[in-house]
């Protein structure tokens, strides 16, 4: 999903959610996700048969209760939408306020959270990541197809060439998933590649009413495009001659193109309901997926009140790797979502591929832009903008703002914001315009999206925008021309961090650096449903097999596919070990050997760990990382103890009898995370914090690692011991890092960054250090 569209979408969703909760809450019932104490549920399971029976009897009892209480009012039984029993313990139900109150008195009740809507946040990418056919990770023995990726998204287009199963072996016998029928979808739509498909909409329909099957498939079939795109990025077949209308020609394919795909459709026209997503996660873990890919999210919350975090914890308890998008709310700081330490949080960066255009003004000035429009150049034509193009809203080219008289046969300047980027192009075309210059504001900086415009049009950065506005306002007959250059490889340094990519530090969990890594997420080519136009505008009648879109939604499935690749090579690795391998081998230099830059500043500013985490993923190195920082479920729970969570908050996540240890001094910084987030009080000087880490040898049996440190400004870093001598594979050794804040900072919150790297021959095991004075 495009960045602008996501933003607009969010606003209207918020409005709807607001209406639903405020005006009708007192009369209407609302859906709640109810968490129950698993130990109590299990005890009752044996006497009642299943937790569903128990929840049904709870529903019965609270109906009776509320009927007595509200004799005059019309009451109906609470509706049980879902029973969750694999990744979380509890259920989703539509309840009145009184029913909720009586539910709270039931033994085993932990919490009830109102359901909410979340939003959805490649020929070139495998080669850019260093994956080559027949070599390294992509050589035959590693490509056994026993890894299953669950994609929770807008569904899938099952007939797409990316999901054909020719040459694939039988579906693994451990697989328990199904292929559900529905609108234009039958069980025969699945095959040995797409091994499962389910549609989850009970939570969505509880808010918006029954899905209209004439406008949207009430099944796993994708009517949006997003889910087909992400699934093919994670595990689509290698397609040799893929392109978007002739652009980006080359082979398209998933990161783990022999993996199986299971599609869980939980996102619909107006968003993704939390209760449906939880049902998808719960079901996928039960079905037997190895990796979960979620290109969606909401606002960050403490883990005990974040349903995605709770369900993801259940997934990793079951050995399932969970990869999520960081969000598209950059470049504002602390905008990152999906921040729980057991989730892999993925930022987005540019590939070494671009679709450049050249815009020349009548005064001779010229600017570089980007576009997926590919055709004849637009020769010098009159340029109109704002009041020379129409009435109110003409500077943004909003619906109906442009005047046919003023625009016909001319090039129109349109500012980013309000309506979608391709929608502005549609407005210009409808008014008879010959072309469009889509200009960034300060907020987008020099970020250039290549969009599939329906007329000759190009994006331009903020510096071009300033020059063009100045030219138009000071010139009597302003003119411009546009030249489309097609696909260029290796033009600008890559990777470059996308301005839209959400950033840390995480305001909810500042003791962990988020996001964790970056992966390609700008102008990504992947599969697309043939009956959804590339712009999704109703006036766009084009049909494409592949489409190019941008977002952390696109970078997340790259990492999901890479996790599947690592899982097939290292069957015994835990989700935390896979995560560690991807993080400690990530790189922070671009292809010019310069530190990775940030597009939000026009590429003039260097990106930091709060933008890319540990750096850009490097799958070939991740397959053989030397050392890993492993984390057990108990370690995560001890971390929650160190955050002073109450026992019922911890029970939500542990779903067992876990009790915080009282004899040890727990601190959040001791979580065995592969990166270091250090928090200092800005008013104190000379403060010391000491973190402990344990590394496991997964490289050569006899190996000696020595440490190299790049100290953050204002901080002294001491490591003990500075050499680790391993004698065998699987051996664990620990070390301590002491951070001493020297001067402290002046004024508001500031950060500084460094790194800690263990080196042994060809192995380099790196961790970023982010220090924040707050
Ligand atoms: C479903 O959508 C179609 C097309 O927009 C509309 O004509 C029809 O009335 C809708 N049906 C319902 C039940 O809302
Ligand atoms: C938890 O409580 C202890 C004791 O009151 C306190 O020292 C510590 O700072 C608290 N930790 C967090 C993360 O709030
Ligand atoms: C900081 O601590 C060191 C050693 O503990 C001491 O020598 C130094 O004077 C202290 N500096 C300040 C500003 O307190």
TrEMBL record:
GO molecular function per UniProt: serine-type endopeptidase activity
Signal peptide: 1-25
GO biological process, one term: proteolysis
Catalytic residue positions: 153 (charge relay system), 226 (charge relay system), 553 (charge relay system)
Span of domain PA: 380-465
Annotated Subtilisin-like protease fibronectin type-III domain residues: 670-771
Listed Gene3D superfamilies: 2.60.40.2310, 3.50.30.30, Peptidase S8 propeptide/proteinase inhibitor I9 (3.30.70.80), Peptidase S8/S53 domain (3.40.50.200)
CC annotations in GO: extracellular region
Main location: secreted
InterPro entries: PA_domain (IPR003137), Peptidase_S8/S53_dom (IPR000209), Peptidase_S8/S53_dom_sf (IPR036852), Peptidase_S8_Asp-AS (IPR023827), Peptidase_S8_Ser-AS (IPR023828), Peptidase_S8_subtilisin-rel (IPR015500), Peptidases_S8_3 (IPR034197), S8pro/Inhibitor_I9 (IPR010259)
Subcellular location(s) of the protein: Secreted
Ranges for domain Peptidase S8/S53: 145-594
Residue ranges constituting the Inhibitor I9 domain according to the UniProt record: 31-121
Family of the protein in this entry: Belongs to the peptidase S8 family.
UniProtKB keywords: Glycoprotein, Hydrolase, Protease, Serine protease, Signal
Protein name: Subtilisin-like protease SBT1.1
């Amino acid at each position: 999903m495009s960045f602008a569209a996501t933003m607009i979408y969010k606003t209207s969703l918020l409005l709807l959610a607001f209406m639903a909760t405020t005006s009708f809450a007192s009369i209407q019932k609302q859906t709640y996700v109810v968490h129950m104490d698993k130990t109590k549920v299990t005890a009752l399971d044996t006497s009642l048969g299943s937790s569903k029976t128990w929840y049904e009897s709870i529903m019965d009892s609270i109906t009776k209760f509320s009927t007595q209480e509200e004799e005059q009012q019309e009451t109906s039984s609470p509706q049980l939408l879902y029973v969750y029993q694999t990744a979380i313990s509890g259920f989703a139900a539509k309840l009145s306020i009184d029913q909720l109150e009586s539910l709270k008195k039931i033994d085993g009740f932990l919490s009830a959270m109102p359901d909410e809507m979340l939003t959805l946040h490649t020929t070139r990418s495998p080669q850019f990541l260093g994956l080559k056919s027949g070599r390294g990770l992509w050589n035959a023995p590693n490509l056994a197809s026993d890894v299953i990726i669950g994609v929770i998204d807008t569904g899938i287009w099952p007939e797409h060439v990316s999901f054909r199963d020719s040459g694939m072996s039988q579906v693994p016998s451990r697989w328990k998933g199904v292929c559900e029928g529905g609108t234009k979808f039958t069980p025969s739509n699945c095959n040995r590649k797409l091994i499962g498909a389910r549609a989850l909409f009970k939570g969505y329909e509880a808010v918006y009413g029954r899905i209209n099957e004439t406008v949207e498939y009430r099944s796993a079939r994708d009517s949006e495009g997003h889910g087909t795109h992400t699934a093919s990025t994670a595990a689509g077949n290698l397609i040799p001659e893929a392109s978007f209308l002739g652009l980006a020609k080359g082979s398209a394919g998933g990161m783990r193109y022999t993996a199986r795909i299971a599609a869980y459709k939980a996102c619909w026209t107006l968003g993704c309901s939390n209760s449906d997503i939880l049902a998808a996660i719960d079901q996928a873990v039960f079905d037997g997926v190895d990796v979960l890919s979620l290109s969606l999210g909401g606002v960050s919350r403490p883990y005990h009140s974040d349903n995605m975090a709770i369900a993801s914890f259940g997934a990793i308890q079951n050995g399932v790797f969970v990869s999520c998008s960081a969000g598209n709310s950059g470049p504002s700081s602390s905008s990152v979502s999906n921040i729980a330490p057991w989730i892999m949080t993925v930022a987005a960066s540019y590939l070494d591929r671009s679709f450049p255009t050249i815009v020349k003004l009548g005064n001779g000035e010229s600017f570089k832009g980007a576009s997926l429009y590919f055709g004849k150049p637009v020769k010098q034509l009159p340029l109109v903008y704002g009041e020379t193009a129409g009435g109110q809203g003409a500077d943004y080219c909003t619906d109906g703002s442009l005047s046919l008289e003023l625009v016909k046969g001319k090039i129109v300047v349109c500012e980013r914001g309000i309506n979608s980027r391709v929608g502005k192009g549609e407005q210009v075309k409808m008014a008879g315009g010959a072309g469009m210059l889509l200009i960034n504001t300060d907020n987008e900086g020099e970020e250039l999206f290549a969009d599939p415009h329906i007329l000759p049009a190009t994006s331009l950065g903020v510096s071009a925008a300033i020059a063009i506005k100045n030219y138009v306002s000071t010139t009597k007959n302003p003119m411009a021309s546009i030249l489309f250059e097609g696909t260029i490889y290796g033009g600008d340094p890559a990777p470059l961090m996308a301005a839209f990519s959400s950033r840390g530090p995480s305001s909810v969990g500042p003791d962990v650096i988020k996001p964790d890594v970056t992966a390609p997420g700008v102008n990504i080519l992947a599969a697309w449903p043939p009956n959804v136009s590339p712009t999704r505008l109703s006036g766009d009648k084009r049909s494409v097999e592949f489409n190019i879109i941008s977002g952390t939604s696109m970078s997340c499935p790259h990492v999901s596919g890479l996790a599947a690749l690592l899982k097939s090579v290292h069957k015994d690795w835990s989700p935390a070990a896979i995560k560690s391998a991807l993080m400690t081998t990530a790189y922070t230099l671009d292809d010019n050997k310069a530190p990775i830059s940030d597009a939000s500043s026009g590429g003039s500013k260097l990106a930091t760990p709060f933008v890319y985490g540990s750096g850009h993923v490097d799958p070939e190195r991740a397959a053989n990382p030397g050392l890993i920082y492993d984390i057990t479920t108990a370690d995560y729970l001890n971390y929650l103890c160190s955050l002073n969570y109450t026992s019922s908050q911890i029970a939500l996540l542990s779903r067992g009898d876990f009790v915080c240890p009282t004899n040890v001094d727990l601190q959040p910084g001791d979580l065995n995370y592969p990166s270091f987030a250090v928090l200092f009080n800005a008013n104190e000087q000379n403060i010391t914090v000491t973190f402990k880490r344990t590394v496991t040898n997964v490289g050569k049996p006899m190996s000696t690692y020595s440490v190299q440190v790049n100290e953050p400004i204002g901080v002294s870093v001491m490591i003990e011991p500075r050499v680790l001598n391993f004698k065998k594979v699987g051996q664990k050794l620990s070390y301590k890092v002491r951070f001493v804040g020297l001067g402290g900072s002046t004024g508001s919150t500031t950060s500084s960054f460094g790194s800690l790297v263990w080196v042994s021959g060809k192995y380099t095991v790196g961790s970023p250090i982010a220090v924040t004075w707050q």
